[in-house]
Amino acid sequence: RTEMFETQIRKMKYLYRTYIFLIVINSTAKCIYGLQLNNHDHLNAYDTDYYNDGGEDYGEIQSTQLPEECKSLQYFVLKRKCSALYPEDIKVTYKDNFVEANDQYAVFAFNDEGEDNYFITFQHSALFHCEEIEVVDLVHFICTNATGCSQDVVLKNSFMKCLDHKSNMVDELLVACTPELHGSSAFTALHYSDFVPEKRSADAHLTAVIHWWLLLGMIILATICCCREIFV
Fold first, then answer.
1. Which of 13-27, 44-58, 107-121, 142-156 has the lowest mean pLDDT?
2. Nearest partner of 94 among 63, 52, 124, 58, judged by Cα
3. Can you give the residue ranges of every domain in the chain?
4. Half-sphere exposure of 83 toward its Cβ, with a 13 Å CA cutoff?
5. What SS3 class is residue 122?
6. What predicted TM-score, i.e. pTM, was given to this entire model?
7. Whole-angstrom Cα distance, residue 191 to residue 212?
């Protein structure tokens, strides 16, 4: 009976080790597939953020024309309200890939039919020295400084997206900039003055690949240990 019991235990151990081995092989296959999928996405798309519906390509972003939903900006003078550093908690919560924590941002406001609307520009640029701005197109602005002098400002890598609905992220950015801006906005233009999709996409891709390879290395190590247990 003792020998039969020991034989059954050995069989169960072999079955258990084989089961673990199959799980490791399956995980390895999934990891390799994830690497391939990540690489495919990197080659066929640029970074998107929480509000991008994926309907735009880089060719459209390179145009200096304002997006259709932002063209109303051309009819208003935008007055500067405040500037601040992008809070880390907002970065973590909303994961906007186009801006980093502690990047500078400035808030401009304009009134449309009695309602305050906002233009938020991220990353330090010449716009931070303006008391008022007029939007000509995606890269061209007319800047009026504190002395009342106006000059043209042209930014090389601008990108803009306009939200025609209330946004919790916008509300939090407004309050973080100044407690005076505590109301919600029905319209907000989000402007990125240093938008370089190739660099940001490459950085994100490299980070993802490193994570995948670390995971794959751990799985391979576990596979080797498991094989030794099975065949020894």
1. 44-58
2. 52
3. 2-44+200-231, 64-195
4. 17
5. strand
6. 0.60
7. 33
Q: Can you read off the two tokens belonging to residue 122?
A: 């991220």
Query: What residues form DSSP beta bridges with 78?
Result: 133
Question: How far is the C-alpha of 212 from the C-alpha of 78, rounded, in Å?
Answer: 46
In the sheet that 150-154 helps form, which strands lie side by side, from edge to edge? 150-154, 140-144, 132-135, 78-85, 104-112, 115-122, 188-192, 159-163
Map tokens 């020991």 to a residue.
6
**Which residue shows structure tokens 């390895």?**
28
pLDDT of res. 169:
93
78, amino acid identity = L
- Strand ranges (E), the chain: 78-85, 104-112, 115-122, 132-135, 140-144, 150-154, 159-163, 188-192
Phi, psi of 47, rounded to the nearest 5 degrees: -60, 140
Q: Nearest to residue 50, comparing CAs of 95, 11, 109?
A: 95
Crossing angle of helices 2-44 and 197-231, rounded to 10°: 160
